[in-house]
Amino acid sequence: MSTTLPLTVRGKKLLDEELKNLIHNERPDVIKQIEEARSHGDLSENAEYDAAKEKQALVEGRIQDIQSKLAGAEVVDPAKIDSDKVVFGAKVKMLDCEADEEVTYQIVGIDEADVKNGLISILSPIARSLIGKRVGDVAIVSSPKGEKEYEILELIFK
Predict the structure, then answer these.
(1) Which has the closest alpha carbon to 94: 62, 66, 129, 55?
(2) Do 72 and 140 sit in the same domain of this protein?
(3) Which of 106, 92, 83, 93 has the alpha carbon at shortest distance from 7?
(4) Residue 132: left (phi > 0), alpha (psi -120 to 50), or beta?
(5) How many domains does the chain have?
(6) Which domain holds residue 57?
(7) Tens of pLDDT, residues 29-49
(8) Residue 22 phi/psi, 5° resolution?
(9) Is residue 1 part of a domain?
């Protein structure tokens, strides 16, 4: 049972590109590797064959995973959002009250998350604490290291 999660337009594009690469490049390459390994004879002690079959299983699994995500995805274009609250797709400029420094995060889908580039998953503790807040509000984020406070300075939708 899969839960429908939102995906930004950028995230959908990335998944589409990965799927295209898997289907048109990775899958045919793995098939060639299997055929070549089979040509070497006895499959029971053929490490190349076993490795190629394992890679094939990973490629096929990822293809199914992406197709499932795309089939149930709710694609959100942040540029079309008109809100005064933090919502999925928003880029949020905040003040880390403890460190007294500004940080900016965009709330994105799980597959898009990349904290080093300021992209946080909708399921992350920070995103969950920000959703529904407005500029000027303070979000308290609970993490294993304790609670952190972030004051929301600006919402950017693009």
Answers:
(1) 129
(2) no
(3) 106
(4) left
(5) 2
(6) 6-76
(7) 999 999 988 887 777 777 888
(8) -65, -45
(9) no
